[in-house]
Amino acid sequence: MAVIEQDLISVVIPMFDEADNVEPLTAALTQALDALGRPYEVIFIDDGSLDGTGEKLTAEAKTNSRIKIIAFKRNVGQTAAMMAGIDHASGSVIVPMDGDLQNDPADIGRLLDKLDEGYGVVSGWRSNRQDHYLTRTLPSRIANAIISWVSGVRLRDYGCTLKAYRRDVLEGFRLYGEMHRFVPIYAKWQGARVTELPVTHNSRQAGKSKYGLSRAFKVLLDLMVVKFLTQYETKPIYIFGMVGLGFFAISFIAGLWALHLKIFDGTSFIETPLPLLFTLGFITGVMCMLMGLLAEVLVRIYYESQDKRPYTVKERINFEGGGDVPRDS
pLDDT, tens digit, for every residue of 72-131? Predict the structure, then answer.
C-alpha cells in the first residue's frame, strides 16, 4: 500500500495500444500539471499493450521521475487497470483520465478547483462530445439516463473517465467489470458530495477506440451489481424476500383463479395451466426465501470472520489516545 501524501495529486491513466498518443499525452500532462504549482505523480497502467506502448512509456519515465508505470502481463480491462493505479497512488486526490487525448489535461486544474469547494467527487461532463452520434453518443445518453434513474444520482455523463476524487471516498471499494464509472454513485451513497463540471472533449487523432455497443449492456449489468452491493450488501434478505413475496403473490392469485374456474365454470384443473403456475410460483418463492436466509448467514460470516464493521467513521473527537478504530467495511 502506498504512503499517502496529503498535498499530492495522483493522475491515473490506463493505456492499451496507445503508442501514438504516449508522447503528446505526456507533453500535455507535464505542461498542465506544472502550471498548477502543486506536487503530482502520473501513473500509467500498461494494460497488456502489443503495439509498443510500454516501451514508449518506459522512455518517458526515464526522463521524468514523476511518471510511474505499472505493466500488466496481459490485457485485463480498463476497470482492473484503474484499480491498480488507485492502489499504487500516493496522492490524497486521485484524477483518472483516458489515454487517448480525448480528455484535455488542461481541465484537471478546473476539476481540482471545484473539488476544493468541499466536494468529494467532481465528475467530468463531455458537453460537446466528439464521437459518432448513433454508435457512441446516443447509446451513452440512454445509459446515463437509466443509471441516473436506478441510482438516484443525477449525472449527465457517467462514461467520462476524467474525474477528481478525494481519496477517502475510494476507501473500502473494489472495482470489477465496468464499475469504474459507478464510483460517483458509491461515493454519494456513502455521504460524499458529488457534482459535475463541463470538460473539453477532443476527437481521437491516433489509435483505435476500444469501446463498442456491447459495453453498454455490460455497464447495465454491472449497475445491477452495484445497486445490490451498496444497498443490500448487509441485508440481502430484503431483496430476496421481496422477490419471494412476489412469487408467492403470483402463486396465490393463480390458485384462487383456478379454484374460481373449477367451482363456477366447471373447468377442470388439467384444462388450465393455472395449477402449474401456482406450484411453480410457490416453489420459487420458497427458494428465494431460503436463498435470502443463506445470504444473511454468509454476510455475518464475512463481517465477523474479518472483524469488519458495516459502517465507516468520518471523525472521532475526545477519545483518549485516539482509541482503537475497528476496521471499516
Answer: 988 888 888 888 898 889 999 999 998 888 889 999 999 999 999 999 999 998 877 766
pLDDT of residue 327: 46
> Per the domain annotation, does 325 fall within a domain?
no
Measure the CA–CA gap between 93 and 45, rounded to whole angstroms: 18
Query: How far does the chain reach from its first CA to its final CA, in angstroms?
Result: 17
Same domain, 251 and 159: no
Looking at the fold, whether 193 and 286 belong to one and the same domain comes out as no
Do 79 and 134 lie in a common domain?
yes
Q: Is 253 helix (H, G, I), strand (E, B) or coil?
A: helix
- Report how far residue 117's alpha carbon sits from residue 5's, in angstroms, rounded to the nearest whole number: 20
CATH number of 211's domain: 3.90.550.10
Which of the 8 DSSP states describes residue 74?
S
Task: Tell whether the model's pLDDT for residue 224 goes beyond 90.
Answer: no
- Residue 97 CA to residue 82 CA, distance in Å, equals 9
Judgement on whether residues 259 and 213 belong to the same structural domain of the protein: no
pLDDT of amino acid 320: 60
User: What phi, psi does 164 have (nearest 5°)?
Assistant: -130, 130
Tell me the backbone φ, ψ of residue 163, rounded to 5 degrees.
-145, 170
For residues 113 and 201, give the distance between their C-alpha atoms in angstroms, rounded to a whole number. 19
Say if 313 falls within a structural domain.
no
**pTM for the structure as a whole:** 0.71
Distances (CA, A) of 124 to 128, 199, 236: 12, 6, 33
- Do 123 and 163 fall within a single domain? yes
| Contact call for residues 12 and 45 (beta carbons, < 8 A) | yes
How far is residue 273's CA from residue 257's CA, in Å, rounded to a whole number? 11
Cell numbers at residue 272, please? 388450465
Domain assignment of residue 297, given as a range: 236-305
